Amino acid sequence: MSLKLFLDMISQPCRSVFLFAKKNNLPVEVKLISLKNGEQHTEKFRKVNPLRKVPALKDGDFCMGESIPMMEYMAEKFNTPDHWFPKDLQKRARVNEYLSWQHLGIRMHGSKIFVMKPKAVLEVPEDKMARAMEDLNWSLDLIEKTFIKDGGFIGGEQISIADLVAIVEIMQPFASGVDVFQGRAKLSAWKERVVQAVGKELFDEAHKTILSAKDSVKQLDSSKVEYFRPRVLRLIS
Amino acid sequence: MELYLDLFSQPCRAVFLLAKVLEIPFEFKYVNLATGQHLGDEFGKISMMRKVPVMKDGEFVLTESTAILEYMVQKHRAPDHWFPSELLLRARINEYLSWQHTNLRAHGSKIFLLKMLFPLMMGCEVPKEKMDAAMEDLNMSLIQLENYFLQNKPFIIGDKISVADIVAMAEIMQPVGTGVDVFTGRPTLSAWRDRVTAQVGVELFKEANEVIMKAKDLSQNIDKTALEMMKPKFQKMFS
Can you give the residue ranges of the GST C-terminal domain (chain B) (predicted)? Predict the structure, then answer.
């Protein structure tokens, strides 16, 4: 298969790309990259993505990064059903609106909680943690109240890339032990609809790594802890 | 079409510029961020997100500049180079627009906030390490813009200007407005800036950037009540 996807399933954007490709049975080859082991810094990977991030896509000589453009590329190339990335002007605008907002919304706040929670890497001051939780809750409230359409999905009545991108980000703090769904009936109901639309088996497969992350962090050796500590500090400063 | 804008804001400048370049008729609805107008009830009726820009096209209300820019190009059937439909070019423009949120946009904004708002909100100058770290991040983004996104092309996606260049330029002008010279010692970036300015039109470029180039006056113009209202949020951000 000429189209290769380079993924580490611990990463939210990798999971949305994985879900999209597998749900649509796209002819792609998945190559797993270990961020924990620094594989994104190898010379080989740099040729695929000089920005050294995952997910990355290689289609013949064409290479790119950034999950949302990658999914749009695959949607266009393989002519996936319209609801994933609707062509209608206003429907497309709604999906784009969420996809743009989420970078500095749920993505930023969910990621922060995920890296701040494991005490193995860093003992984060309580007030900083409290503020990070406040930000996360603000994002979740907005998703519930403004973005998810009643009884439906973010873009409307059918699932789209916006829902995939949203769910993988929400699962990140969830995997670190924060019950993001408690007391949020609308969010929980939407999650069930997304899981059903994607297929429970595929959803679980995509989230297997992240849901066991809490345990694997406890097993991190000291060199890995030293590697992650400054990065976490930078993220939370 | 109504566009709710404050030209202090980078995404507002991008939307303003594109609408003008494409000659899309619109009503400019000024939202004065320095007086906290975006936090008021009136603006809340337009958008609960309490951010600018906002586009109101008939009954359809849209936030997020990249969504608004794509909408404008699609609706008004702008020349293809603004948001190319060809598979690989579309991928490249989307790649830039996605990357920039947490890179050039985030780092350029931080410089602006530290230089212009930190002293007002925290009552002291910005600690040197904080400013140095922020400048390092901005420099990294500019290096990536030059070496990965531009390379030796005239514009981000190739021979012609696109929405990506408009968005990039709007973000770069933010730290520039505070007095940070990002162009000296960067011939690739400077040459690109000149090309973008020429394409957009020197007068229009000047008009869009008039407000940000007077950023240093912000501390005198910021409303004291609005300042007090915004302090908790910024103090949280800065500490």
Answer: 86-218
Global pTM reads: 0.94
CB contact under 8 A, B64 and A100: yes
Residues on B contacting A at a C-beta cutoff of 8 Å: 48-49, 60, 62-68, 70-71, 74-75, 87-88, 90-92, 94-95, 97-99, 101-102, 106, 133, 144, 147-148, 236
Q: Which of residues 131-160 of A touch B (CB under 8 A)?
A: 131, 142, 146
Whether B2-80 shares its CATH topology with B82-238 is answered: no
Q: Kindly state the average pLDDT of the residues A210-237.
A: 72
Q: Which CATH architecture has domain B2-80?
A: 3-Layer(aba) Sandwich (3.40)
| Residues B16 and B30 sit within 8 Å (Cβ to Cβ) | no
Q: Give the one of A70, A104, A131 whose C-beta lies nearest to B101's C-beta.
A: A104
Tokens, residue B212: 């940000």
Question: Does the distance separating the beta carbons of A101 and B94 come in below 8 Å?
Answer: no
Nearest CB to B67: which of A50, A96, A104? A96
Smallest Cβ distance to B91: which of A73, A92, A108?
A73
CB B107 within 8 A of CB B134: yes
The domain ranges of chain B are: 2-80, 82-238
Residue B206: HSE in the Cβ half-sphere, 13 Å Cα cutoff: 3
The strand order across the sheet containing B60-63 reads B27-30, B2-5, B54-57, B60-63
Q: Do B98 and A66 touch (CB under 8 A)?
A: yes
Query: For residue range A13-52, what is the model confidence (pLDDT) as tens digits?
Result: 999 999 999 999 999 999 999 998 889 999 999 999 999 9
Query: Tokens for B117?
Result: 């708002």
A161-175 helix and A185-198 helix, angle to the nearest 10 degrees: 120
> Does domain B82-238 fall into CATH 1.20.1050.10?
yes
Report the gap between the CA of B71 and the closest CA in chain A (Å). Answer: 6
Task: Verify whether the Cβ–Cβ distance A237 to B133 is below 8 Å.
Answer: yes
For residues A18 and A13, give the distance between their C-alpha atoms in angstroms, rounded to a whole number. Answer: 9
Interface confidence (ipTM) of the complex: 0.94
Single-letter code of the amino acid located at B59: E
DSSP result, B156-220: TTBSS--HHHHHHHHHHHHHHHTT---STT-HHHHHHHHHHHHHH-HHHHHHHHTTGGGGGGHHH
Q: Which amino acid is at A8?
A: D
Decide if B71 and A89 are in contact by the 8 Å CB cutoff.
yes
